[in-house]
UniProtKB/TrEMBL annotation:
GO terms for molecular function: acyltransferase activity, transferring groups other than amino-acyl groups. This is RimJ/RimL family protein N-acetyltransferase. It comes from Variovorax guangxiensis. The lineage of its organism: Bacteria, Pseudomonadati, Pseudomonadota, Betaproteobacteria, Burkholderiales. Residues 16-150 form the N-acetyltransferase domain. It holds the Pfam family Acetyltransf_3. InterPro entries: Acyl_CoA_acyltransferase, GNAT_dom. The keyword Transit peptide does not apply. Keywords: Transferase.
Length: 195
């Protein structure tokens, strides 16, 4: 039995469903909202590479990918994944996360992180959840830090960007003992009035 089994996670009108080839058109449309593939520091697929993006996600052994959808309509809003899954030490990372521009700076990301973290810590019994991001993806770094994750450090010269430059990777983590406080903060953020 795999450490991360297929599961659908739902809350606050958002459903994280196991990614499949059926999501190809929806992912293509979500990425087109803002032409997200043009961002230098993300892994969002170009429209013509959406199917290959899904196929790669599905065949990567240490990754479990989700389509982020509107629960009521089934509209695809983006994608996120557990990756670098280490069952022996009960650790997963959350990444490959992106949303259509219309969903950015809304409750979508906070809801997704709440769902993924709750499943990782409460259902899977993870000891640690990690994140990694491009050293120039400052928006992602701020979002991860707002979650309450701690910066572990920077791995220099760690990965290739789509433009051929080599990136440094900023690593973050959250330990199981920190989860109750982070959960309370995420619920607070979701419940407070948005101005």
């Amino acid at each position: 039995m795999a450490f991360v089994e297929p599961v659908t996670l739902k809350a606050r009108g958002i459903a994280l469903v196991p990614l499949s080839l059926d999501h190809e058109e929806g992912l293509r449309a979500a990425a087109a909202d803002g032409e997200l593939w043009k961002l230098r520091v993300t892994s969002v697929p170009e429209p013509e590479n959406t199917r290959a993006y899904i196929e790669t996600a599905l065949k990567t052994a240490d990754r479990f990918a989700f389509a982020v959808t509107d629960e009521a309509t089934g509209t695809v809003l983006g994608s996120t994944s557990y990756h670098d899954i280490l069952s022996a030490v009960k650790r997963v990372e959350i990444g490959y996360t992106w949303y259509a521009v219309r969903c950015q700076r809304t409750h979508v990301n906070t809801t997704c992180k709440l769902l993924l973290l709750a499943h990782a810590f409460d259902a899977l019994g993870c000891n640690v959840v990690g994140w990694r991001t491009d050293n120039f993806n400052f928006a992602s770094q701020r979002a991860i830090e707002r979650l309450g994750a701690r910066k572990d450090g920077v791995i220099r010269g760690n990965a290739m960007r789509r433009d051929g430059t080599i990136r440094d990777t900023v690593m973050y983590s959250l330990r199981a003992g920190e989860w109750p406080e982070v959960k309370a903060q995420l619920l607070y953020l979701l419940d407070k009035p948005r101005g």
